[in-house]
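Data deposition worksheet. Section B asks for the primary sequence of the deposited chain exactly as it was used as input, without tags or linkers unless they were present during the calculation. Section C holds the resulting structure in token form. Section D is free text for depositor observations; keep each observation to a single sentence. Incomplete worksheets are returned to the depositor.
Section A, Depositor: J.P.
Section B:
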Amino acid sequence: MMMQSNQRYFGSNRPLFPLFFLPAMCVLIMIGVMLIQDVTKTTFYDWGIFPRTSKGLKGILFAPFIHGSWSHLVSNAVPLLLMGFGVFYYFSDTGYKVFFWLAFSNGLWVWSFARASYHVGASGMVYGLAVFLVLSAM
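Section C:
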């Protein structure tokens, strides 16, 4: 008798919605923040990361949700959804650890080494997920 080992592939009966949950929640928060910025005609740049200052530390948590424009947001949101799905699909046991570790470590690296200016967006998270998926496939 042959055992089926295709539980990790799209042919399985595994529901796909939970795999999109965390990336989708992040994108919805990003869209909400951008809508607030548009409606109130303000920016939240001062909630971004300003390197090597105590006031810039709060940006480690908030910067991924703040974007400079709708095109900036879309450029981060689409790959965040797709690669976030990939991480949770192929690494369901460690997906949350990877996701949160990348978000925190990227912010910490920007705070430690970036130029003295406000930094916003989830690009570091997107590139971190891409590198994780590529290196994990090797």
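Section D:
The chain is about 60% helix and 0% strand.
Residues 34 and 40 are 10 Å apart (CA to CA).
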